[in-house]
Amino acid sequence: ASGTGRSSGSLDRLLDMFEAADGEYxxxxxxxxxxxxxxxxxxxxxxxxxxxxxxxxxxxxxGYRLEASGSALDVRRIxxxxxxxxxxxxxxxxPKIDSTQTEAEKKARNGAAEGTLVVAEEQTSGRGRxxxxxxxPPGRGVWMSTVLRPEGPLTAVPQLTLLxxxxxxxxxxxxxxxxxxxxxxxxxxxxxxxLCGILLEAVVEDGRVRHCIMGIGIDANxxxxxxxxxxxxxxxxxxxxxxxxxxxxxxxxxVMNEFEQLYMLYAQEGFEPIRLLWESLSVTLGRxxxxxxxxxxxxxxxxxxxxxxxxxxxxxxxxLIPVYSGDIEI
Length: 330
Ligand code: BTN
Known about the structure:
Elements: E1 3-4, H1 10-21, H2 28-35, H3 39-51, E2 55-59, E3 63-68, H4 75-81, E4 91-94, H5 100-109, E5 117-120, E6 142-148, H6 157-176, E7 181-183, E8 187-190, E9 193-205, E10 208-218, H7 238-242, H8 248-269, H9 272-281, E11 288-293, E12 296-305, E13 311-314, E14 320-323, E15 327-329
Parallel strand pairs: 4-5
Antiparallel strand pairs: 1-4, 2-3, 5-6, 6-10, 7-8, 8-9, 9-10, 11-12, 11-15, 12-13, 13-14
Helix pairs in contact: 2-3, 4-8, 6-8, 6-9
The site of biotin has 21 residues, from helix 5, strand 6, strand 9 and strand 10.
């Protein structure tokens, strides 16, 4: 069920009717009378709902019955799951897009409010950190981008990526029960394999952040065959970890709910509470790590997170070295 959170077309009215019928049959005639369209139009709308993943039982005598809400992304289910005041309220769900980052950035440039959310069933050019490609097959993942308008300086952006990792980690644990952990700075892993990546892209003007796009990719219901071969043993999904399909609409709402709460906490109390939460969810701390960045390769133990969100690495001679960017190996 793609569309926008603000429209309420006849498909919405039809869904309302079926939901109110609570699993009972509705005849084509009754539906057409109640929404004032022809029976052919009713049949076409039901077909559109089927395409969006809703499952109907059709009986020549009794009419139609909604069997299940289906597994497609659903604007209404996402909105129904929100407890936020702003995040996710302006919502667009698209069947297919090059990248939700690009789409959300366009909206931000045109003045979209903080919390505006773009979600897609499929991305044809999903992008990851450091110029990597983000594999985004249709119908099984969570590919979402949110507009942020942070007040702080550019140097605060890394803190926001850590905040995002905490929010998504909590949402994943709450909705799927999978014990995801954070690998610095903001990958989420389960049993050592990646299941979620986060990408914050800041648009800067005159040294200030004009807006920021927070992209989140969660391998929710991907199966082994959905990945390219070179990724097979490095990645996993919530489905593979838990054995059951996750309700992607509920997960998206949970991410927004967790994010808004932490974002407010951050505005009120600064980075310290976020830093502590991040540390408690981290799978990096205490581990031997290898850091590769512009300065080459360094080894040590991941010791903690600094005040700015930098990783503090303890070297063999006991020195604490801050790592601000790049990738680590654990
Ligand atoms: C990474 O781990 O490299 C970050 C991956 C971020 C992927 C998400 S999916 C939604 C949004 N749109 C994109 O093109 N990328 C982000």
